Amino acid sequence: MDLTIHGEANLNEAATRLNSTQSLQFSSGSAQEHRNFCEIHYGSGSVSGIFSQDNVQVGDLVVKDQVFVEATKEGSLSFILGKFDGILGLGFQEISVGNVVPLWYNMMQQDLVDDEVFSFWLNRNPEAKEGGELVFGGVDPNHFKGKHTYVPVTQKGYWQINMGDFLIGKHSTGLCEGGCAAIVDSGTSLLAGPTPIITEINHAIGAEGLVSAECKEVVSHYGDLIWELIISGVQPSKVCAQLGLCIFNGAKHASTGIESVVEKENKEKSYAGNDLPCTACQMLVIWVQNQLREKATKETAINYLDKLCESLPSPMGQSSIDCNSISTMPNITFTIGDKPFSLTPEQYILKTGEGIAQVCISGFMALDVPPPRGPLWILGDVFMGAYHTIFDYGNLEVGFAEAA
After folding, report:
1. What DSSP character marks residue 314?
2. What distance in Å separates the CA atoms of residue 132 and residue 136, rounded to the nearest whole number?
3. Which of 214, 375, 232 is closest to 292 using CA atoms?
4. Cβ atoms within 10 Å of 24's Cβ, excluding its own
5. Residue 262: Cβ within 10 Å count
6. What is the pTM of this model?
7. What's the domain of life for this entry (predicted)?
8. Which residues, listed in sequence order, are joined to residue 144 by a DSSP beta bridge?
9. Any bridge partners for residue 362, and if so which?
């Protein structure tokens, strides 16, 4: 159920509604080629091609002289096999390749919409004919309940906001009590976050991923020492450096920034290769802090750490789950704008196939972005499917309300 085009400008004087019945069209039939080469990297691969220019019809609106990329090479099987014809970027111009003016900007500059907002409703019913709805220039009241909670955009580029405490069931993980950066992105299918917390989530819901012998080895050799150092008052960020497992104040390889969040493939998984002892130690420090918060004994905590190692996400970030255990899983809650936004197991577990061939996948995947940009979360389709989302460009804020 792809989200494509359906023209219907009846939400206000100038708006267009997009759902899964029609397609975006280039209207002049005589695209002008600029012949400038470009390359774009995405989470599932890359494309390269040339810049061109044409009029683009979006529903009942026609965007004039839109510059876009004609893809001449696709660097991933997912693009070759995917049942879609292109990608419509809705981020800020600050991250536009070649500083091209995005289609949404042109809609506003050409006065095609009255309100500088666009909104998403994603239909999570796999049996439904309509996969969802994207409205440019307005909001469809039929697809949400109550009022939206708005939070400001904290950094232009992606639609980045600040997120507060994060709970598994009724228990705080402590990671985001002081605030965490989060990106709201319809182009990310799952919900991504730091490996230590995603591992705790997957352990809590019974998901099985990569069984890391190295992680277990760090628990075996350093678990007691990590516990004692934190108890003695050593700053958590210094523990792994003091044990000789990390350098540079606990970050063995500090990145200077993220080239992209959803564009770049997460090839350098933080728990892989020679960095694993350092990364495993850093995860254990977070987990020990959580256990201390729960007032666990050292023996109980060390056993828990060893089990968490078994729930590390697979190299591609996904973890499977027993479909029969969904009813026993806890809710996962995000705090946004000082309000709780909970996901039930039915909302965060993805199902494919039927009968004995049915497979259930955890909706949470690992993505590690180091400080100062991280920890960083991506609230993808798993979250946006549960909460109708308004992207308000005029006020630079994002709003969430229960989807209907």
Report:
1. P
2. 14
3. 232
4. 16
5. 20
6. 0.74
7. Eukaryota
8. 403
9. 349
Cα–Cα distance for residue pair 82/74, rounded to 1 Å: 11
Residue 242, judged by CB atoms within 10 A of its CB (0-12, 13-18, 19+), counts as middle
Using the structure block, give the residue that is written with the tokens 């069209």.
25
Q: What is the pLDDT along the chain (404 residues), one digit of tens a residue?
A: 333 333 333 343 345 666 644 456 665 555 666 668 888 877 656 888 999 999 999 988 999 999 999 988 877 666 665 667 788 889 999 999 889 999 999 999 999 999 999 999 999 887 888 889 999 999 999 999 999 999 999 999 999 999 999 899 999 888 788 889 999 999 888 999 988 888 888 888 988 764 466 788 889 999 999 999 999 999 999 999 999 888 754 333 332 233 344 434 343 333 344 466 788 898 899 999 999 999 999 999 999 998 888 777 665 566 788 889 999 999 999 999 999 999 999 999 998 877 777 888 899 988 887 777 777 899 999 999 999 999 999 999 999 999 99
Cβ atoms within 10 Å of 8's Cβ, excluding its own: 17
The first and second tokens of residue 105, run together, are 């900007």
Cα dist from 306 to 3, 299, 337, 339, whole Å: 42, 11, 35, 33
Q: Which amino acid is at 209?
A: G
DSSP summary character for residue 329 = P
| Nearest alpha-carbon partner for 348 in 367, 335, 334, 336 | 334
Q: What is the largest CA-CA distance in the chain?
A: 71
Residue from 52, 343, 43, 20 nearest 169 by CA: 343
**Which residue type is seen at 17?**
R
List the structure tokens of 351: 């199902």
Burial class of residue 264, CB neighbours in 10 A (0-12, 13-18, 19+):
middle
Taking alpha carbons only, the member of 140, 198, 179 closest to residue 403 is 140
Residue 264 vs residues 39, 275, 367: alpha-carbon distances, Å:
12, 20, 11
Cα–Cα distance for residue pair 29/26, rounded to 1 Å: 7
C-beta separation of 392 from 117 below 8 A: yes
- 5: DSSP letter: B
Instruction: Please check whether residue 123 is in contact with residue 371, taking contact to mean a CB–CB distance below 8 angstroms.
Output: no
Place of tokens 């989302």: 389
Asked if 9 contacts 57 with a C-beta cutoff of 8 angstroms, the reply is no
Residue with tokens 């909970």: 342
Residue type, 182: A
Instruction: Determine how many CB atoms are found less than 10 A away from the CB of residue 398.
Output: 23
